[in-house]
Each structure stands twice: as C-alpha cells, then as structure tokens.
Amino acid sequence: MLAAFAVGVRTGRHRGVDVAWGLAFAAVALATYGMSGAGGGRALLLTVLTVVWGVRLGGHIAWRGRGHGEDPRYDRMLNRAPGNRNAYALRKVYLLQGALVWLVSLPVQAGAYAPDGLGPLAVAGTVLWLTGLTFEAVGDHQLARFKADPSRRGRIMDRGLWSWTRHPNYFGDFCVWWGIFLVAAGSWEAAAVSVVSPLFMSYLLTAGSGKRLLERHMEGRPGYAEYRARTSGFFPRPPRRGAGASD
Fold it and tell me: Where would you find the membrane-spanning parts of this chain (predicted)?
C-alpha cells in the first residue's frame, strides 16, 4: 500500500489503490506461504486461490481504469480533505485499506499453520471459491461489454448475471472469502481466529462500502427503480415479474 501511495503521489491520481487492493492479498498469501515453511496441500491451495483471485481483480480494475483520470469517489473525498490531500489519502485510504487487507486475509494466514490434510470442508470451500470467482469474472465481462456499446449509454445493465442479482461481483466476493475460510478451517483454532474475516467481508459487501453505497449512487438513474423491484439485491434468483422484490 505504501508503494501504491508513492505511485499515487507521483501521478496525482489515487485510483491505483483499488488495483493494489487485490495485489496486496496476493502478496500476503505469498509472504505467508514463504514464512510458514509449510509445504503441504492446505497452505499451497490457500496461496493459489488467493493469488488467482487477487491478480484477476487487480488486473481487471487496472484495465477498466486505463486512460481515465482520478476516480470520482476519491476526488470528492480528497476535495473535502482538511490540509494536505496526499497526507489525508495516506491516512484515510491507503493505511486503512492496508489494515483491512490484514484483517480479511486472516484465513490465509491462519490456515497456513493449520494441520495439513484436505477434507470435505476444503473441497466445499474450493467449489464455493470457484463459484464466486465465476460470478465476479463473468459479471465483470458482461458489464464491460454492455458499457462498450455507445447505444446503451445511460441504460441500466439488466442482462446475464445482472438479471439474477444486482451485484454479481459483490456476491462473488462473498463466496470467495467464505470459500477460503472453509479451506483454512483445518482446526478449530484456525477457524476461531479467522471467522471474523468472512463475517466482516459480508458486512462490507452488503451493508458497508459495497452494495449500500453503490445503490445510493444509482438510485436516481432512469429505470433503476424498476430494475431494483424485479432483481435480487444480493443472492441470485430468477428475476421477478412485476414490483415487490425484497432486498
């Protein structure tokens, strides 16, 4: 995160912190694997799952933001900053996200020291992780194709996975981190230490900085109220006919 901050100061744009978010998880996984000295299947599996997820996410955000200026969210935040913009960004964005990376990656850290031997929980966790990664990757691809069509400018994306849930990428994140937790839970100690990670990630995605803030930003757009009425707010399900869908 400090390296990302240095790049942000040099370029005058702090949107790169979102790229660093995924890459930081990959760095934690690789560092943990190296420091634990573990050569077993659980530690290796946790490392692979985390690195694949983090690199895909960071790469997608970097590709999506190419050629753009500062992210409007950070621009609004830093324009209200008391004092130096960069110092405020360091405290409120980079260091905060660094702390969150450490907290959310607890299953990766604890699981590397759990007894080796992959059982049914690890299999279930891997399947859940794969489900989440698929939702994220497919949802991001569908949204990118939709936005690339100039005739759809200003319209609400309601096709593919986006017709089953308003947030396929957030639902994917939810599955990824509960899956990684299940893989890490090779002992009750590892599970007890790291269960805070998927619980906290679930809160962020559904009631924190994820779904809640994005929907507040979207609610004034034409057609969004109708889309919200027929489409699940988080867990996928077939679109409803007519109004009355719950969140």
Answer: 19-38, 44-63, 93-114, 176-206
What is the rounded average pLDDT of the residues 187-207? 92
Judge contact between 171 and 234, C-beta under 8 A: yes
Amino acid at the residue 49? L
- The ranges assigned to domains in the chain are 1-106, 118-247
Report pLDDT digits (tens) over 234-245: 999 999 875 444
* 80-97 core/surface letters (b: 16 or more CB in 10 A; e: else): eeeeebbeebbeebbeeb
CA 113 to chain centre: 25
pLDDT of residue 164: 96
Per-residue pLDDT at 246 = 42
Classify burial at 171, counting beta carbons within 10 Å of its beta carbon; exposed 0-12, middle 13-18, buried 19 or more. Answer: buried
Using CA atoms, how far apart are residues 180 and 198, in angstroms rounded to an integer? 9
What is the rounded CA–CA span in Å between residue 220 and residue 228?
12
pLDDT in tens, 78-106: 888 888 889 999 998 999 999 999 999 99
Left if phi > 0, otherwise alpha if psi is -120 to 50, otherwise beta: which for 168? alpha
The one-letter code for the residue type at 127 is V
Distance of alpha carbon 115 from alpha carbon 157, whole angstroms: 45
